[in-house]
Amino acid sequence: MCKPEAVLPADKQVLMAFTSQLILCQYDTDTIGKFLSCIVSKYRQFGYPSPLQYRKIGAWLLGLKKNTSIGVKTKMRLTPIPIRLIASLSTTSLLHERDSIMVHLCTLGAFWQCELISLDVCDWLTNRECDSRGQSYDAMVFLKKQKNDQEGKGRWKRIEWGGDLCLVRRVERYLHEVQLYTHGDCQKWKNVALRTTPCVKCGPLFSMVYGGTRFNNKRKRINTKHITSAIARMLTATHVDDAGFTSK
Fold first, then answer.
1. 86 and 208: one domain?
2. What's the pLDDT score for residue 12?
3. Domain encompassing residue 31
4. 113 and 41, same structural domain?
């Protein structure tokens, strides 16, 4: 059997770049191990020493095993094509409209799932005024719960007006159709201490949908599982395989 001199042995930098790409693509430790096992088998088949003798690659694998949980499925972020397909999809129910908006806030709006879950109706403020330079103030969203907010004070996030697939107009239309408005007795913007707590008067911006067409009387708040299900439903509706996708 002739040795494939043009391919093996691979350069150390090539192997390290390959391993880096697997890590960046969020492959779990077991999957990376399977890829490297195939490479080691080919090396041994043609009589070359194992590439895992490179110290840096071995150190990376050891670090991954310590810091990465075993058995985590590979997740890839939604790409622009599926996102645009979901945005342009004609929704036929309250459930699909809510799902589509949630997916776009998590992707185009760069919201963490924990931020989306904690949103109340009164956290979404639309401002049609312009500043001294003529630039729109756009929509302002107050985030009570953030992944990196150690002090727990919350912060504002701005979402710009867009064209045909404008996210701000879509949220406004959603709020109007389901008749969600800031309650007249809401004290959030009158009392600073209430800004980082759930508003019992206005309720959640995104709540559970029953039968695909209605909220229940209590308007129960969604959780991360509902967002995962929303991604799967939207991808299925656009005829895209939903396996292995995540919003973040």
1. yes
2. 66
3. 12-67
4. no
Last residue of a domain, one of 50, 67, 84: 67
Q: How many CB atoms lie within 10 A of CB 191?
A: 10
Let me know: does 19 contact 36? Beta carbons within 8 Å: yes
46 and 18 share a domain? yes
Out of 65-74, 116-125, 135-144, least confident range: 65-74
User: Do 47 and 156 have their domain in common?
Assistant: no
3-state secondary structure at position 236: helix
What is the rounded CA–CA span in Å between residue 151 and residue 140? 21
> Structurally, how many domains does the chain consist of?
2
**Do 188 and 210 sit in the same domain of this protein?**
yes
pLDDT category of residue 69 using cuts at 50, 70 and 90: very low
Q: Is the pTM of this model over 0.70?
A: no
144 and 220 assigned to the same domain = yes
Rounded to whole angstroms, how far apart are CA atoms 211 and 93? 10
Note the pLDDT of residue 204: 92
- Provide the residue count of the chain: 248
CA–CA distance, 18 with 219 (Å, rounded to integer):
48
Question: Which pLDDT value is given to residue 148?
Answer: 67
**Using an 8 Å Cβ cutoff, are 167 and 103 in contact?**
no
Q: How far is CA 122 from CA 26, 118, 144, in A?
A: 36, 11, 11
